[in-house]
Please model this.
Amino acid sequence: MPKVVKLMQGSEACTAGALAAGLRFYAGYPITPSTEVAELCAEELPKIGGKFIQMEDEIGSIAACIGASLTGKKVMTATSGPGFSLMQECLGYASLCEIPLVIVNAQRMGPSTGMPTSPAQGDVMQARWGTHGDHPIIALAPGNVRECFDLTLRAFDLSEKYRIPAIVLTDEVISHMREGVELPDPAEVRPLRRAAPSSPAGYKPYAADPDGGVPLMAPFGEGYRWHCTGLFHDESGAPSGKADVADKLLRRLQLKMDKNAPDMWDNVQEGTEDCDIAVVSFGSSAMSALSAVRRARREGVKAGMLRLKTIWPFPEPAIRELASRAKAIVVPEMNLGQLALEVERVAGCRSRVIRVGKVNGELFRPDEIYDVIMGAK
Amino acid sequence: MRVEFRLSGSGGQGLLLAGIVLSESAILEGKKAVQTQSYGPEARGGSSKAEVVIADGDIDYPKATDPDFLLALTADAYRTYGKDMGKGLVIIDSSIPLDPAVKARTVALPILETAATAVGKKVVANIVALGVLGGLSGAARPESLEKAVLNRVPKGTEELNLKALRAGLELARSVGEP
Amino acid sequence: MSDVLKYFRQERLPHIWCPGCGHGTVTGALVRAIERLGLDKNKVCVVSGIGCSSRAVGYLDFDTLHTAHGRALAFATGIKLARPDLKVVVMTGDGDCTAIGGNHFIHAARRNIGITTIVMNNEIYGMTSGQYSPMTPKGMVGTTAPYGNVERSFDLCELAKAAGATFVGRSTTYHVPLLIDLIEKALQNDGFSVVESIGQCPTYLGRKNKIGGAVEMLNWIKDQSVNVKAAAALPPEKVKGKFLIGELHNAPAPEYSSEQGELIGRVQRNYSDIKGGLWECASNSD
Model:
């Protein structure tokens, strides 16, 4: 069929990507600026026999998603700031119990109610460490509307493949922005699905290679009769307070993310091959940053742009490589320095890391980043 | 080519829809377009701003930095955004008193009145304004604008909206060359 | 017992509950009701929250889900909506259900979603060692109410009824045959059912309040209960200060997941010939 360029909103593209991935269950609670995703799911899911429910709060929303995921459905919820905070406990549950789940978090100004209709990127660390305890997590950050489709689809694939909850970290600008988008032919999309056991005989729900293996996941209601618990558990799923069981489980979960990180990493680079000044950014800040980098390059400054599409697991090799080349790394983000902490950690003393934070509820103007690039050269 | 538009007024005037249709008409011609918005908590009556960037090539930064066109349908929006205008043209509704603090070139057009009397419905002022912006900028051809309007307006209002668009294009022609 | 042992993961026994605890009695009543109805083990899913009572699901041989504190009904809502053919049971305690999970409780009732909720009410937080709960009677002592509880408690069955539950009953760990009957009826109700089972916690409630051990507590529970049918014939002073047991409310109404199923059927009929829209993105995903 002929390719059609359609004007689409970021939230709309997230929903389209989810549907292409096989979304069949959505539970959510209205919150700005993510509500469009819920509205579209309410409209589209019944048409394909999928289920939509508006829960009583965000805790209930993620809980219902986990329940539905256990029956084998691909599930998603969308939220923002305060709602994402409320989901943290159950996000830890999904991470420990290895329940595939996608959360779209359209970041807004916080803390607290903050500025509900204004963009921010203050949930970088919350996405990684919002729930208690060490745990694996995936966070992808679309940088334009087309990527809202691609990375939501990708979040489903990764979450299904590795049984790690995946967060699509957008912000008010990316979620509400409209762009002309050409979507892939749905017939060419090949979504992944969690690996399932072939028979209940001898099924051990958490049996996996201790070196970061992913256990097979049986759907509820199909005769496996397994036990899923947020307590530390052994391979049979039984709760256990034994030190060796706990240690083995948590290390496997961590290795599951660490060992498979190369499969999860993705970024976009421009001009980094010869740069003196590198800019590392993501989401809507990266749009301003790219404009600034291009202007600097036109003026003869060797500036380069690394835009992260994967935030978590943190792409250490890409930063390390950049730090070996650039004398300074500028990190613009709509918070007071969260991604920058990771960049500083990985860059070590190889490059000077310059934090550029913006927290007034407005997107960076390109000249604000341009000035920092010029000051750093 | 990069053309930046800022459409401002109050919530409920339909400026967001006008921005969407403008973007879509450019896309129909194979151009790139990005539409963004900023808004407050009020669904109706608060300040509202939609921005559209249209270009032949890639658009890296999606917001207007130095708008080529500012549309202001309320006095508040005119005073707020008019002062920031540099090279661009300010288009205001004729009902808005001119403010000497706004230095940019300004044209006043009877957008609200045209919607209410010539077209017959106040609510289509946004589409009249769209016609004005389309006509003055040349960012999209009239036939693309018409097609995009038909894609987005509610069923049963097609004729009314086309009439509004044409009235807006007519107002644009009345301005003439600078 | 032997006829219901098949519903247990026997390798996971013995359980963690204290000697004299009432939770085993309720768990036994559930499997006996399931046995009577001849339900397919593979099509029953039991969900719980956090607390002593919520440990029950670990011993049961169904698909079982031990969730987060207070959230059992929200998890169960996802399961029931995704798989309406499954029989979904929630086992929850008084703290889990009425304090931290209170909002999910009233909304599950409001929707009339097909979940059988068994509230194992021992009127105290046992797992955290004896704090007062929203079900602790006024005046009783708990570790966080050392001078006596000044809060009023819920009448959980009235709450369930008011919120929209379509089957509500109450029994106790003393009145076991009634408890089994009520759970059996609740499982047959196509809608949101609540069975409150008042039971003994000799370790905390009994000891702190000098009620005695399990036997004394069971007698104490028995003495406070009045069957709803008997109560109708008794003068009010004989009923005052006691709680009613028996079937308290039975008003069938359309079940939520089937209502949603009907809505989906209607939408799909309307859209079967219509092209365009985001849903077409799903054409290659199952």
About this structure: Residues 243-264 of chain A form the longest helix (22 residues).
